[in-house]
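>> Question from a student workshop board

For tomorrow's exercise we were told to take the sequence and the ligand below, predict the bound structure, and bring the output to class. My setup keeps failing. Could a helper post the expected result so I can at least see what it should look like? The ligand is phosphoenolpyruvate.
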Amino acid sequence: MQQRRPLMAGNWKMYKTADEAAQTAQQLVERVAGVTGVDIMIAPTYTALVPVFEVIQNSPVALGAQNLFWEDDGAYTGEISAPMLKSVGCQYGIIGHSERRQYFGETDETVNKKIQAALQVGLKPVFCVGETEEERASEQTLSVLDKQVKKGLEGLVSDQLDTLIIAYEPVWAIGTGKTATDDQAQEVHQFIRSLVEKNFGTALSNSIRILYGGSVKPDNVAGLMSMPDIDGALVGGASLDAESFSKIIKY
Ligand code: PEP
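>> Workshop helper replied:
Here is what the output should look like for this input. Compare the format with yours to find the bug.
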């Protein structure tokens, strides 16, 4: 089985002004200097992308966006496109985060269009999936994930998906302090990998990185990372502080 390079990604959500974001990015750069063997990404708000990029551009930390729109340009007030994000230094785009699904009407169909738009310009999509608490309680976790993965990747073929990253984020674990146990997370990651294998073949299922997200902290990251199908973390709250995020990166 091939070795997958871990990715530690920080989602800064709607926190930090441009100056605050640049300052945290600077602190992070200092703390991860010399770290090897792991990819690092931070996704600040749109208004902080440029100042953060200036700070991180010659460091191991890469830039990501928290969302994007699927058209390249046009009369879409308030939206930002994949080529625009690429032009300010983004390498990654988070797509389908549960907060976007929950509060901003994101659907599997819009997620699919956004993944295609990201791939078109060479932005690596971080495609988020995950079940709600009710869905888990009623034993629908696997069927929900099956649908999200199938519909999110509809129309795409394995050759297009080399750079795709999937983030499994159980909605009940995001920002709640409740983390899935290592075994609960592993079970779902293994299932998602099997879905990728079924739909896109063994080569992609072996190489694709599947991140875990949901209250990842410095003290629970090592256990999660010891699981065979967990290839990194998408971190919200604990990525806002450079010291705690750097501890996660150096798990
Ligand atoms: C997230 O925003 O993707 C996330 C997992 O948040 P938190 O780490 O705060 O649960």
